[in-house]
Amino acid sequence: MKTSIATVSISGTLEEKISAIAQAGFDGVEIFEQDFIAFDHSPREVGRMVRDAGLEVTLFQPFRDFEGLPEPFRTRAFHRAERKFDVMEEIGAKLLLVCSSVSPHAQGGIDRAAADLRELGERAARRGLKVGFEALAWGRFVSDHRDAWEIVRRADHPAVGLILDSFHTLSRGIDTASIRAIPQDRIALVQMADAPRLQMDLLSWSRHFRSMPGQGDLPLAQFWEAVRATGYDGVLSLEIFNDSFRAGSAGAVAVDGHRSLVYLDDEVRKRLDPRAADALPPRSRSSGVEFIEFALGEEAPAFESLIGALGFRRTATHRSKRVALWSQNGVNLVVNGDPHGFAHSSYLVHGPSVCAIGLRVADAAAVMARAEALGATPFHQKVLEGELEIPAIRGVGGSLLYFVDPHGDLSRLWDVDFVPVTPAPEPGAVGLRGIDHVAQSMDHDEMLSWLLFYTSILDLGKTPGLDIADPRGLVHSLVVENDDQSLSLVLNGSQGQGTAAARFVSEFSGSGVQHIAFETADIVATARALREAGLATLPIPENYYDDLEARFDLPDAVLAEFRSLGIMVERDGEGEFLQLFTTTFAELFFFEIVERRGGYRGFGATNAAVRLAAQNRLSRPPAIPRR
Q1: Potential cystine with 284: which of 367, 413, 568, 583 (Cβ 3.0-4.6 Å)?
Q2: What is the H or E stretch that residue 605 is in?
Q3: Residue 550: predicted pLDDT
Q4: Are 158 and 48 in the same domain?
Q5: Which domain covers residue 484, as residue numbers?
Q6: E strand or H helix at 418, and its extent?
Q7: 136 within a domain of the structure (yes/no)
């Protein structure tokens, strides 16, 4: 399968787009007419630029309002087509996309449209070119790929094929099974685009909200499986209209695009042939977080006092580095204050922070092979003889994502690289027993990128996004997690510059972990132990508990204790979720303690606005720009 992407999908000049597309690993590029018109180089120079980048021009597009026109508009349309053919010959493009007409002058009729395309195909063939006909979802007379195919079939010309676009089919809810009957040699090219489910007109939906496969809600695997079932093995391309993508990093968006196509095609090929020899290793299921590593400097003593109050104890030290392991009931926090290596570099950029997360997987080598095939960046750091090099890739904000498995030395990480503290410290009495979820804050425009990153590499699904009210704007939140919630990652982003999520990204100098939620079996007992340890927890306003009393039928004594301890409550059907928060450490990150009851699977969304307001009251006021 050859991969391609339309230049309209990413930002920059045409030259910058071509460079980004080549570096991302695509085989070809669709030249969007407007990008070409706005460029100040000749068609021949553009073609040379594409070839020098190691790409081919898979499509020149779009050619609009062609079929079904009366005279004199029909003659003019063919004149326009000849001029496009001139440009295509110089650029080196062999295929022209003709999208169904929206012209008020157009006349209906399948035979009329077929005759026009037959003549256009004849003119193209004289130049060694081809045309592909595509049904726009909002086309005046042709808005369904089944009608477009019938027109192509009746045109009956070898230089006329059908172009299929997932958005135009799926946005209208057209049955993809109809694609399976189309002969594969009549499909000229296939374009892919995902999108969130939105209630709006098709044109606006398409022009502003398309996304990469896997970032939206459309059944793209079903669409591509139907295409694959025809035997089609031609170009799989992306045509994405998205305001954020056009304003973002061309390189990052191109990498996402290539990753999305490789991921989609691999998943579909495995459905059609589970024994495909060249398939990627399957998405790995993670059984949870093995460790979280913090990069610290002079703040280390204060941080160790904080996690000590949370019940963690210093259980081991690294054999050769200024690194300590703090543990509690199998929950591992690594405190890295070494003046060398990745953690120190991370500290210099971000300050005290989470610099790495270690995940438990079934096969670390297989995860790495899949991640690298999907464009993830592997990380290597020099280790001393006898020490482990844990497989790792770059993650959110340049942090690291480590993978450990139950095989070989990786299963003995804490014995190989660390020396136990003797005598062994007494375990804390706080009762934390696991990591419930990890929340990462990032630029709003990065959220779809990291969603695709996590769900394409690991066996994680996404939940519907939520908008949460912050005193200074809205925070958009979505969750990626596995079926049993042994690994849950919350992604938060905001376009409001004053929100807690946005301030974190600004003060942190990038995206990263803003909070970690620990699980307990008895949050009341945990809260009491934290109070006895002198830990400061987030003060929740009295109004919250007055409202809680009105919403839930809680016994007076229970409500009084929740009020006293700062415990928040949310219910969902039979389930119940109890939360408690620390104050923010170094104005950057904080911890949460949660107890889940009755199968509750959410994350306390109804409490989030109150929590954000409480944190906002304790935070530094945002800097006022000088005039």
Answers
A1: 367
A2: helix 605-618
A3: 87
A4: yes
A5: 432-618
A6: strand 418-420
A7: yes
